[in-house]
Amino acid sequence: MTKTKKKVIILLLITILIVLVPLFILKGAEFGGSDDAGSQVISEITGEEYEPWFTPVMERWIGGEIPGETESLLFCVQTAIGVGIIAFFMGRFVERTKKEKLESNKIG
Predict the structure, then answer these.
(1) Where are the membrane-spanning stretches (predicted)?
(2) Which residues contact 43 (CB under 8 A, 6 or more apart)?
(3) How many domains does the chain have?
(4) Is residue 96 part of a domain?
(5) CA angle (84 as vertex; 60, 5 as ends), nearest 5
(6) Is the whole model's pTM more than 0.85, yes or no?
(7) Is residue 83 domain-resident?
(8) Residue 99 domain-assigned?
C-alpha cells in the first residue's frame, strides 16, 4: 500500500469518527438557538415577556412563520455564497502571487 493510500484511509476513518461519535455521545441532547436564549435572559431580567422589535421580511412575504427546514436551507445558501466569494478572492490572490513570482523569475 502506498503512503498516499494510507493517508487517505486514515483521513476517511477520522472523518467517519467525527461524524458518528457525536451521534452517540449527544443522544437526546436538545439544542436551542441564540435568539431563544437571548429572549429568555431578557424576560428574566425585565420580568416581562420579550416582544421582538420587528418581524422578518420573509415572514411578511409568506404571511406566517418560515418552516425550520426552509430557514436552514436559506442559512446554508447564505453560507455557500459567502464561502464562494471568499474562495474566489483567495484564488485570485494565489494566482496573482504565482504570476508575480513567474514574472520576477523571468526578469532576474
Answers:
(1) 7-26, 72-94
(2) 49, 50
(3) 1
(4) yes
(5) 130
(6) no
(7) yes
(8) yes
Q: Which residue has the cell 471568499?
A: 86
The b/e string for 36-64 (b: 16+ C-beta within 10 A; e otherwise) is eeeeeeeeeeeeeeeeeeeeeeeeeeeee
In a domain, 70, yes or no: yes
In this prediction, residue 89 carries a pLDDT of 97
From the list 94, 58, 88, the residue with the least C-alpha distance to 75 is 58
Q: Which cell numbers hold the place of 6?
A: 494510507
- DSSP state letter for 73: H
Helices (H), 68-108: 68-107
Q: For residue range 19-74, what is the model confidence (pLDDT) as tens digits?
A: 898 888 887 777 777 777 888 888 889 888 888 787 778 788 888 887 878 888 88
What is the residue range of 95's domain?
66-107
Where does the pLDDT of residue 8 fall: very low under 50, low under 70, confident under 90, or very high at 90 and above?
A: very high
